[in-house]
Amino acid sequence: MKxxxxxxxxxxxxxxxxxxxxxxxxxxxxxMETALxxxxxxxxxxxxxxxxxxxxxxxxxxxxxxxVGDWKYDKLDRPLRPEQAILGxxxxxxxxxxxxxxxxxxxxxxxSSLKPELVAGxxxxxxxxxxGDIYFGQPRGKRVxxxxxxxxxxxxxxxxxxxxxxxxxxxxxAFEAARKRNKRVTSxxxxxxxxxxxxxxxxxxxxxxxxxxxxxxxxxxxNAAMQLVKKPKAFDVIVTGNMFGDxxxxxxxxxxxxxxxxxxxxLNDSNQGLYEPSHGSAPDIAxxxxxxxxxxILSAAMMLRFSLNQEEAAQRIETAVKAVLAQxxxxxxxxxxxxxxxxxxxxxxxxxxxxx
Length: 356
Ligand code: IPM
Ligand code: MN
Fold this sequence. Notes:
- The protein has helices at residues 12-25, 39-45, 51-59, 83-92, 116-119, 164-179, 195-208, 221-230, 242-255, 294-306, 311-326, 344-355, and strands spanning 2-8, 31-34, 62-67, 97-103, 123-129, 141-143, 155-157, 184-189, 215-220, 237-240, 265-267, 273-275, 329-330, 340-341.
- Helix 1 runs parallel beside helix 12 (344-355), helix 6 (164-179) packs across helix 7 and helix 10 (294-306) packs antiparallel against helix 11 (311-326).
- The strands form 3 sheets. A 10-stranded mixed beta sheet has the order 2-1-3-12-11-4-5-10-8-9, with helices on both faces.
- The protein is globular.
- It has 2 domains: 1-96 and 268-356, Isopropylmalate Dehydrogenase (3-Layer(aba) Sandwich); 99-262, Isopropylmalate Dehydrogenase.
- It has 356 residues and is of the alpha/beta class.
- It starts with a strand and ends with a helix.
- The longest helix is centred in the middle third of the chain and has 16 residues, at 164-179.
């Protein structure tokens, strides 16, 4: 088994280092190989996703990814920006199914921005389609008006589109996942306005015929955003498109206390996967040793479960994380009165200790 380790930028290197230590401590037989990605790869090789990094990722059974991006690259041409690395990996590896579980750990009920009773015991799974939608739809671009008299005629455009097979396969992933949980799927769309999402709704409804044991409801994305903070525990599995999923998963992360707790898995149809925290590179706190490594450590657990067939090891990590939270150790993002503030490395140390 081979794991490609791509730490990336900002806090990416710090948090991935802790996850790698945890993986090493498991004493399982896998090989890990590290490569540059994002801004770090751009600095070294002039491209955010160098050929060698892509090759390593393609050949690996799983990719452990940190984060990419920094404001200092905002002025680069789009194909050279760090974000293109993660988008390119998702597209090239066909990672269409993105799992973003939002679980509120008992000890963090008070770290949430919502009232504890609204989030206590929360366990929802957002399934975000990851290789289609307005993120990748063509045509896209910018048209500069050639007639200098009408600068207002300049425009930019992106294309929102989904094909039937793209919707069918993500709908199946969602129904299958729901079968292993509380058997409820909420499909989030904007069918009242957008053709793309009327089609989405129709296709999800068709696929649902094969899953009569799972309850399906449809919800407009604006209402879903509201319901997530009004009554989050009413959800079980949420399935939605790339852009709505991007937005709703950030919203859901706050229910759990911190986006620093949210892992993710992105899978293709051969269960090859990329595992990354749902948060970004946080350049504002990079290098300070205060980033929360738990989202990445929990992503490593998802990697063991989904791509490496090591369920037991995955559970060991998850149990260790819960133990550390129970000890009252908190990075600043989840700190609250009466708990002990620790840094990235200390948090990693504590997880290692709990594993042993
Ligand atoms: C995410 C991120 C990415 C996305 C960015 C970095 C391209 O926000 O993984 O949610 O929009 O998908
Ligand atoms: Mn995002």
